[in-house]
Amino acid sequence: MGLYKKYILPKIIHWTCQQNPTMRQREKVVPLASGKVLEIGIGSGLNLSYYNSDEVQHLTGIDPSAENWNMNTNKVQDLGFDFEFIKAFAEDIPSDNNQYDSAIITYALCSIPEPDLALEEIKRVLKPNGKLIFCEHGLAPDTKIKKQQKFINPMWRWISGGCNLTRDVPILLANAGFKVLEMDTMYLPGWKPGSFNYWGSAKIE
Length: 205
Description:
The chain is an alpha/beta fold. It has a single domain (2-204), classed as Vaccinia Virus protein VP39 (Rossmann fold, 3-Layer(aba) Sandwich). The protein is 32% helix and 28% strand. A seven-stranded mixed sheet has the order 3-2-1-4-5-7-6. The longest helix is centred in the last third of the chain and has 17 residues, at 143-159.
């Protein structure tokens, strides 16, 4: 599993996450970020081209996988704002309290081993009036699809590097003390158990 995780899985994740439906979702939420921004699970940098350089002053991207980040093809010197990549886990963000105006997470909450702790960390590093911007797949509302998700999930997690099909995004946000400001949901085209999306923004209650 070591070689698979290090060399094969990053390529699978990169290919999956750059499909047109998910890229259109990124385009909806990433431009909402402003000020000093933290991106959780920056992966291979698929969000970078969607940031509004007139609104972003500085972007810090964290990810536990250097292999994922090494597949980035964006020229960070041409982004129009300062950027740094830090190899780090979402459950232990290497930043002081109240540092960021915006935090953004897209298709990463599903694979964080301790999502509650990660959201607590995001809350810690956000300024009191800061905003969490999110786009995630997760638990579907339909009973049939939900049953499929729960049945498939143990095997799916094993082959996908820890991705969960059954994360209830609104519940996770509420439990961490976030108030949703706006949220939309829909099934993206494709495999139903992995295609139900939540996206929007939230603030600290």
